[in-house]
Amino acid sequence: MADDDMTIREMCDAYGVTPRTLRFYEAKELIFPERDGQKRWYDRRDRARLKLILRGKRFGFSLEDIRQLLELYEPAQGNLAQMERTYEIGRERLAQMVAQRDELNEAIADLEEHMRWGEQLIADARKGRAANG
């Protein structure tokens, strides 16, 4: 254990995750904390991997995509393969997100139109009730 290793609680506090999340990533073999009995110790490598996992999840990358990217880590090779694959996955995900945004913008415009129509129906019904009342 190194001086800068972190406990599961420190990791949770530092990265805003739950112990369950960390154990899940460990079970999926995405992070590899050192064990000392029941205690887990997370080193710099685990922290770097967790940062990449969380960033990938935020962007909507699958855990399998993230696993592949982590496995491509080759500092001696300049990480070119990892960077290229990250760029490729990122480009695909961006296209998906833009398509989703466009669909959402269309749905919002459609709902706004229906809400205006509903407002008018309600206003007309109120006028009719007031005139008959």
Can you summarize this structure?
The chain is mainly alpha-helical.
Strand order of the largest sheet: 1-2
Low-confidence runs of at least 5 consecutive residues: none
CATH class of the largest domain: Mainly Alpha
The portion of residues forming beta strands comes to under 5%
Query: What radius of gyration results from the CA coordinates?
Result: 25 Å
How would you describe this structure to a colleague?
The protein is mostly helical. The protein has two domains: 1-61, Multidrug-efflux Transporter Regulator, Chain: A, Domain 2; 87-133. The protein has helices spanning 8-15, 19-27, 44-58, 63-71, 80-132; strands spanning 34-36, 39-41. A hairpin with a 2-residue loop joins strand 1 (34-36) and strand 2. Helix 3 crosses helix 4 and helix 4 (63-71) packs antiparallel against helix 5 (80-132). The longest helix is centred in the last third of the chain and has 53 residues, at 80-132. The mean pLDDT is 93.
How are the secondary structure elements laid out?
Elements: H1 8-15, H2 19-27, E1 34-36, E2 39-41, H3 44-58, H4 63-71, H5 80-132
Antiparallel strand pairs: 1-2
Helix pairs in contact: 3-4, 4-5
Main traits of this protein?
single chain; 133 residues; mainly alpha; Multidrug-efflux Transporter Regulator, Chain: A, Domain 2; 2 domains; two-stranded antiparallel ribbon; 5 helices; 71% helix; elongated
